[in-house]
């Protein structure tokens, strides 16, 4: 079957003109060939691996300058830029041995540098490594990264928190497109499934220079899975089972590529019952079901590369309002519940010129969010449609300067179709222009940039003035200039330091400007403020990293000053038995950091020890604490790696202890939270069974069934604990 598929696609590209190619060999310091090295050209989404002789070849590549990355476990990654000005080019490479993780190309910072070359410290995690930690959801896995936490509603809904900032202050990108699905609500999840996602990059700090408004707190940048190597067909099936929620996650993916064409498709279905706490009681209506489908087609030749992607995500979410109620193992959601469908289209293009290139990315998102109280008729239904465009021109390299100029924008409409209105019908238009440059000499790098943005928000009048759910018409314009400056250097051969200063901004969202009603889950009546100003912040980051062949140590510190920080404050009045809160502003500050180490002792090459500690403090100008600030956390992992005869390769076993401390630095309307310690175990590897191989992963999280309540849990006010012991089993087949 796969031979016919390959032949069909080969036929489609048979008329393609003769293409350039690059080839070479990869060896180690002893001039011995290195097999199975990953060779990847990110601009054209093409990859291959070296053969037994260390030889690689990539065909159908563009003329001009092309970046190619080389990475292999046990070796230091390299990122090379080569000028392609003839039909056949050669690039031979020598890789040095390394006992630490591979140094990967970072996409989110614009210049596609290896992390070791970046001015900004970016955390990168593969989805495969997150699954090895036994995380039930994508956001739960991300919360294990130092400096990242989550605001959660049971196990189904999680909102990322980066160094104390969340909601619209954290921008999320997927398929090269900013995700827009009503992020203003804590009970509104991202609507992203981990299947079909290769990795995530986390920028902790203002990224408004590259991404505009809403990126003042940071960015989560999800990289989609890569296409198959040229002239191959691949398929995979994965199955994960979860003991606590009686849950299941099934995913099937197919992909194939020729020299010019690429195609992939993936379908996923997740279903979970109510989760059990450490007291072995199920939290009523915390069940949920999710369907996800992703597909992509790509084409490249000597002039351009283009990839069209589509993602459909459908969520059926129970809303746990009664806490510990009727005990059930059903996966059919009860009332109240949410129904959310999300269509995401993206078109990512790169046009290659002799010494420069143009990136042109277009995106369209249709988000349909419904809430059902006691029947299948939605009382609240919002349709959010967003069109994004992102143009970046990479100027010809001038000496040691690499520069980008760009323009980005968004057109968004929100329409209400239910009888209840949470926010009014509205239109939002963004436009921004920017320029940034990167200058590198020896081990030193300087990066600087400047940006201007404008956002216009217009909304319709609704209802009878003074009544709940009524809104006055709104016509507001917000603009801002922002800048960034960063410097990276190697103080010694093993010691690297980075310092970054960047400003960011965020225009008030519709909920903050127009709210007029009871906000679900907060038990308070919220009143918007049409006179709110733009939030503006300046953050300073300092990073030190020491690394040798067996030891790595890092320290990250930050100070974030925010003018016009928006928050809710009580008026002292009550309406319909709910206290009235109004949106207001004050200056605020957040500060803290992360510290960690990674020890790989010699000659015990099979043993690794990792430890990290994270802290953040948030205060208003008057000294009061900000809400939703994560508790301090100390995370420790011992990992062993091994092979067992001829039936288990790349085996691993992990022992993790995560200590979350007491959080008493709370705002006036939060309650303090007790500390807790969770013990987690993991075991897995690549199993050989006759002629077949598959990846196996077994995890036991919260081994001792600890009963605890996370500080950022939205169920905390009802005294509902988080998830208890959860044993998960994951199997991945490739064919």
Protein structure class: mainly beta
Please tell me the CATH architecture of the largest domain by its name. Beta Barrel
Mean of pLDDT: 90
Biggest sheet features? 22 strands, antiparallel, barrel
Determine the oligomeric state from the structure: single chain
Low-confidence stretches: 1-18
What's the number of helices? 5
User: Fraction of residues in helices?
Assistant: under 10%
How far is the N terminus from the C terminus? 12 Å
CATH class of the largest domain, named: Mainly Beta
Fold and architecture overview:
The chain is mainly beta and 735 residues long. The chain folds into two domains: 98 residues, Immunoglobulin-like (Sandwich), CATH 2.60.40; 517 residues, Maltoporin, Chain A (Beta Barrel). Helices cover 4% and strands 56% of the residues. It is globular and about 80 Å long.
How would you summarize this macromolecular structure in one to three sentences?
The protein is mainly beta. The protein is 4% helix and 56% strand.
Features:
41 strands, 22-stranded antiparallel barrel, 5 helices, 735 residues, Maltoporin, Chain A, disordered N terminus
Layout: helices, strands, pairs:
Blueprint: H1 2-12, E1 20-27, E2 38-41, E3 46-49, E4 55-61, E5 64-71, E6 78-84, E7 88-90, E8 93-94, E9 105-106, E10 113-114, E11 122-126, H2 127-131, H3 138-142, E12 148-153, E13 157-162, E14 170-174, E15 177-178, E16 197-204, H4 208-211, E17 218-224, E18 232-242, E19 247-257, E20 261-272, E21 288-300, E22 304-318, E23 337-352, E24 357-372, E25 380-394, E26 401-416, E27 426-441, E28 444-459, E29 474-490, E30 495-506, H5 510-514, E31 516-519, E32 524-527, E33 535-547, E34 551-575, E35 578-599, E36 607-620, E37 633-644, E38 648-660, E39 676-689, E40 692-701, E41 726-734
Parallel strand pairs: 1-7, 1-8, 14-17, 32-35
Antiparallel strand pairs: 1-4, 2-3, 2-5, 5-6, 9-10, 11-16, 12-13, 14-15, 16-17, 18-19, 18-41, 19-20, 20-21, 21-22, 22-23, 23-24, 24-25, 25-26, 26-27, 27-28, 28-29, 29-30, 30-33, 31-32, 33-34, 34-35, 35-36, 36-37, 37-38, 38-39, 39-40, 40-41
């Amino acid at each position: 079957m796969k031979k016919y598929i390959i032949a069909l696609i080969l036929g489609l590209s048979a008329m393609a003109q003769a293409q350039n190619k690059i080839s070479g060999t990869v060896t180690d310091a002893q001039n011995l060939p290195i097999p199975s090295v990953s060779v990847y050209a990110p601009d054209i989404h093409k990859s291959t691996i070296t053969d037994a002789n260390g030889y690689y070849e990539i065909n159908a590549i563009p003329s001009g300058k092309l970046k190619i990355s080389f990475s292999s476990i046990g070796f230091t990654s390299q990122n090379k830029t080569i000028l392609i000005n003839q039909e056949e080019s050669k690039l031979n490479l020598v890789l040095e041995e390394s006992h630490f993780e591979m140094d990967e190309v970072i996409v989110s910072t614009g210049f596609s540098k290896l992390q070791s070359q970046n001015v900004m410290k970016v955390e990168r995690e593969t989805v495969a490594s997150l699954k090895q930690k036994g995380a039930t959801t994508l956001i739960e896995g991300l919360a294990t990264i130092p400096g990242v936490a989550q605001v959660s509603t049971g196990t189904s809904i999680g909102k990322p928190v980066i160094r104390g900032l969340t909601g619209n202050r954290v921008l999320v990108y997927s398929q090269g497109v900013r995700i827009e699905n009503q992020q203003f609500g804590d009970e509104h999840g991202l609507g992203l499934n981990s299947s079909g996602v290769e990795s995530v990059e986390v920028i902790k700090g203002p990224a408004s220079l590259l991404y505009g408004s809403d990126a003042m707190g940071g960015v989560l940048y999800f990289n989609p899975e890569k296409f198959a190597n040229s002239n191959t067909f691949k398929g995979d099936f994965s199955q994960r089972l979860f003991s606590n929620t009686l849950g299941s996650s099934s995913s099937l993916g197919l992909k194939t590529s020729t020299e010019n064409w690429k195609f992939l498709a993936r379908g996923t279905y997740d279903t979970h019952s109510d989760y059990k706490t450490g007291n072995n009681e199920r939290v009523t209506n915390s069940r949920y079901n999710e369907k996800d489908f992703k597909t992509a087609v790509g084409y490249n030749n000597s002039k351009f590369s283009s990839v069209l992607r589509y993602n459909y995500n459908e969520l059926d979410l129970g809303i746990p309002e009664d806490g510990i109620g009727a005990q059930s193992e059903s996966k059919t959601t009860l009332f109240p519940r949410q129904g959310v469908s999300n269509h995401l289209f993206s078109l990512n293009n790169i046009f290659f010129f002799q010494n420069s290139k143009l990136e042109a990315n277009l995106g369209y998102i249709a988000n349909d969010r419904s809430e059902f109280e006691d029947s299948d008729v939605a009382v609240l239904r919002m349709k959010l449609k967003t069109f994004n465009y992102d143009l970046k021109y990479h100027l010809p390299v001038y000496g040691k300067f690499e520069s980008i100029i760009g323009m980005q924008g968004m057109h968004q409409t929100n329409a209400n179709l239910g009888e209840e209105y949470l926010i009014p019908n509205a239109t939002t238009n963004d436009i921004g222009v920017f320029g940034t440059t990167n200058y590198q000499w020896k081990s030193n790098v300087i990066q600087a940039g400047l940006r201007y943005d404008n956002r216009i928000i217009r909304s319709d009048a609704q209802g009878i003035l003074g009544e709940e759910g009524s809104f006055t018409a709104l016509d507001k314009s917000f603009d801002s200039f922002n800048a960034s400056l960063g410097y990276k250097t190697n103080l010694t051969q093993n010691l690297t330091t980075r310092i970054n200063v960047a400003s960011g901004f965020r225009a008030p969202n519709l909920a903050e400007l127009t709210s007029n009603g009871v906000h679900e889950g907060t038990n308070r009546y919220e009143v918007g403020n049409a006179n709110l100003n733009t939030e503006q912040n300046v953050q300073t980051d300092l990073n030190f990293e020491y690394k040798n062949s067996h030891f790595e140590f890092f320290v990250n510190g930050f100070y974030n000053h925010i003018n016009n920080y928006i928050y809710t404050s009580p008026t002292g009045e009550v309406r319909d038995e709910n206290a009235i809160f109004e949106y207001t502003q004050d200056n605020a500050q957040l500060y803290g950091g992360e510290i960690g180490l990674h020890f790989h002792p010699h000659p015990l090459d099979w043993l690794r020890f990792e430890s990290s500690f994270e802290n953040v403090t948030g205060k208003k100008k008057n000294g009061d604490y900000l809400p939703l600030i994560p508790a301090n956390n100390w995370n420790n992992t011992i990992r062993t790696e091994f092979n067992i005869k001829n039936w288990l390769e790349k085996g691993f076993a992990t022992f993790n202890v995560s200590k979350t401390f007491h959080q008493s630095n709370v705002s006036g309307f939060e309650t303090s939270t007790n500390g807790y310690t969770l013990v987690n175990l993991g075991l897995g590897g690549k199993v050989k069974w006759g002629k077949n191989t598959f990846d196996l992963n077994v995890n036991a999280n919260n081994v001792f069934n600890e009963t605890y309540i996370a500080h950022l849990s939205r169920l905390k006010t009802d005294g509902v604990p988080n998830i208890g012991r959860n044993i998960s089993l994951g199997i991945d087949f490739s064919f």
